[in-house]
Structures are given as structure tokens and as C-alpha cells.
């Protein structure tokens, strides 16, 4: 998948869908300057080519009582392929882990975790994270307040 395949109309379609995935095809077509049928064909092509991965609803964590966001840096004992794969497979199973990145620098992974309270965080760290074979070090930082949160990628023409 290469961004070079996208023309200006494709980018406008993606931009509009990132803002509101529930927009009707007729409304989308009007906003991007197409008739409905060619617009729908472009959306389907963008889906097939992997430019549109999913349509989701964004639920505020607080609405579900998930008031604590924690960034956890994890270092492994060894960074060989099997250890990395084992860690990644296990972390993907935990619903608390919203994002996980393989990193350069001081730690091997950075996780964004949401939990309802400190007890849930302690349980997650002590019963889940530390039980993954090969975990050497865990460091946590708490988000005091979310300043910016975006889901839409920038669309450059």
C-alpha cells in the first residue's frame, strides 16, 4: 500500500471518513465533489486496497469507569526473536492494553494501559505483566490529564 496511489479526491474521502465514519455516501459524495456512485466505488476501492482498515465507535474511557491511563515501559531480559514474539502475543491478549509499541532506546516496549483504579493496575502488573517470561523491568508513568487525542491522520494533498 503506497500513499502515492491516492489522488486529491481519495484523500478528501479519507479525511471526511476519519471525521465521521457514519456519514452517508450521498453526503460524502457532495463533500468531495463526486456523484454518489463513483464515490461509493472509490470508498470500496480504498477498503480493498487497505487504506480503510475499520469503522469504529470511540467510547470515552471515563464512560466505562476507566479513569486511569498509564504508560508502561517494559524491558526484556533478551531481545531475540522468540522472546519478542512471546511478549507481543501475550500482551495482545490483555484488554487493558490499548496500544503497544516496540521501541528503541532504554526500554523494549511502551504500552498504553487503561484501568478503573489502582487496584486493577496492581493486579494487571503483578498477575499479568510480570508473569510473561523474560520481562526484566517495568516502569510506569501516570497520565494526569489528556491534553490532546486524535484518531484522524493528517491528510496532505
Plain-language structure description:
This protein has 157 residues and is of the alpha+beta class. The chain has 2 domains: 46 residues, Arc Repressor Mutant, subunit A (Orthogonal Bundle); 82 residues, 2-Layer Sandwich (Alpha-Beta Plaits). The chain is 36% helix and 19% strand. The protein is built from 5 helices and 4 strands; from the N terminus they run αααβαββαβ. The protein has a 4-stranded antiparallel β-sheet. A hairpin with a 6-residue loop joins strand 2 and strand 3. Helix 2 packs across helix 3. The model has no long low-confidence stretch (mean pLDDT 95).
What distinguishing features does this structure have?
alpha+beta; Alpha-Beta Plaits; 2 domains; 5 helices; 19% strand; elongated
- Strand fraction band? 15-25%
Low-confidence stretches: none
Spatial separation of the terminal alpha carbons:
17 Å
Largest β-sheet summary:
4 strands, antiparallel
Rough outline: elongated
What strand order characterises the main sheet?
Answer: 2-3-1-4
- What is the succession of H and E elements? HHHEHEEHE
Q: For the record, what is the CATH homologous superfamily label of the largest domain?
A: Lrp/AsnC effector binding domain/regulation of amino acid metabolism (RAM) domain
Structural class: alpha+beta
Percent in helix: 25-40%
Produce a short descriptive summary.
Keywords: DNA-binding, Transcription, Transcription regulation. This is Lrp/AsnC family transcriptional regulator. The protein is an alpha+beta fold and about 160 residues long.
Amino acid at each position: 500500500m503506497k500513499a502515492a496511489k491516492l489522488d486529491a479526491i481519495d484523500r478528501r474521502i479519507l479525511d471526511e471518513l476519519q471525521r465521521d465514519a457514519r456519514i452517508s455516501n450521498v453526503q460524502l459524495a457532495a463533500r468531495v465533489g463526486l456523484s454518489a456512485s463513483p464515490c461509493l466505488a472509490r470508498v470500496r476501492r480504498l477498503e480493498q486496497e487497505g487504506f480503510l482498515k475499520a469503522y469504529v465507535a470511540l467510547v470515552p474511557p471515563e464512560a466505562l469507569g476507566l479513569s486511569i491511563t498509564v504508560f508502561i515501559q517494559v524491558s526484556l531480559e533478551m531481545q531475540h526473536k522468540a522472546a519478542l514474539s512471546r511478549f507481543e502475543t501475550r500482551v495482545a491478549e490483555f484488554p487493558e492494553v490499548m496500544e503497544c509499541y516496540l521501541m528503541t532506546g532504554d526500554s523494549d516496549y511502551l504500552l498504553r494501559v487503561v484501568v478503573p483504579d489502582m487496584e486493577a493496575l496492581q493486579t494487571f502488573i503483578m498477575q499479568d505483566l510480570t508473569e510473561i517470561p523474560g520481562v526484566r523491568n517495568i516502569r510506569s508513568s501516570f497520565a494526569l490529564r489528556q491534553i490532546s487525542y486524535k484518531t484522524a491522520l493528517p491528510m496532505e494533498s
